[in-house]
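Hi V.,

You were right to ask for the full record rather than a summary. Here it is.
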Amino acid sequence: MSKYDDAIQYLYNATPQFQKIGAAAYKPGLGNAIALDKAFGRPHTHFPSIHIAGTNGKGSTASTIAAMLQSAGYKTGLYTSPHLVDFRERIRINGEMISHKGVTDFVDRYRSLDLDCQPSFFELTTIMAFDWFAANKVDVAVIETGLGGRLDTTNIISPILSVITNISIDHIAQLGNSEESIAREKAGIIKQGVPVVIGEAEGEIAALFRKKAEEENSPIYFAKEAGLWSAVAYTPEANIYHNTPYGTLEGTLTGVCQTRNAATILTSIALLQNRFIITDESVRRGFRDVTRLTGLTGRWSVLKTEPLTVCDTGHNVGGWQYTSGRLEQMPRPLSMIIGFVNDKDVDNILTMMPKDAFYYFTQASIPRAMSAGEVASKAARHGLNGTIVTGVREAMAEALKATPATGSIFIGGSTFVVADAL
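Predicted structure:
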């Protein structure tokens, strides 16, 4: 086993990992994060940061803002989660993943400290990211929360801008079972005097954010599509935003949901231009080349054209409200490779799935995965027909054999099903 493999195994096995075991790995509170940060010389204070929370869209938003800053010539750190294939996807500078040596050196240093705390996988990974960004002298870092906001490990930072994309029901065991309770947790990233952009919020949720911003003396901006562009043209390859303040934007993250993210991004960029020189061309390039510049994947990613094979990491009710509409537009016959984790509102998600598709009910290779049999049983109650194929790769093989070149295949339901597919 290589030194890197040993370090990764240590991170996975010696620390509780939410990706594998779920709620048992969640450690609310910032005590461990503060202790770790102090032990490593408070690296988060060595660079300006942008903090992004939200139920859906925060990865796309974080990556696009990072792509624009990178296009503007700034050395840009990007911290996201979870990873799909390689642990190092979580920590990038100008799109380049943290090196194997960067991971092993950090783990060696941590193990030599013998600290009086037992951090989670995410706590260690977050401080690793901050340490890597500081050591490499980034000009700015875009930091995505892991879960929630108020008690999320990333919330030790003092950002120059906070962004909350939207609120939907997810992670109710940790954040509460109402949109209001979840919004309160997300609002925890609003800091004293720091501007905050709210992507989608109405009524009581918007009022909650306004009240928190007022308490913190933080200027608050609600992203509105009106006035940011004259029209949007939707094509399979791109969302084309006409007559924006930056000219015509070609957004290669596609679908109606991305227009909400685009409004949040453009509102944020206008504020960041008070601090950074971001040209119109940098904005256009960031929108157009976000996947290439940052390595973002799993957002309606096309894996194959014949048959059209798409994967998407949307995994909660809010995400599926947008995904379901796109599925209606996919060529028939449609094959659906679907699996979930145990802590999602699976029954509500299943009501949004097309009844004219053939389903391959499967499960990801993590302990949190709902069994393929249970997925199939729940799906049957919603009139969805198919077969059980326990492994994701096996399900892909069967779907490819059965689906004609003129048809299509969708892979999703869980980030981890997409990870196995990739």
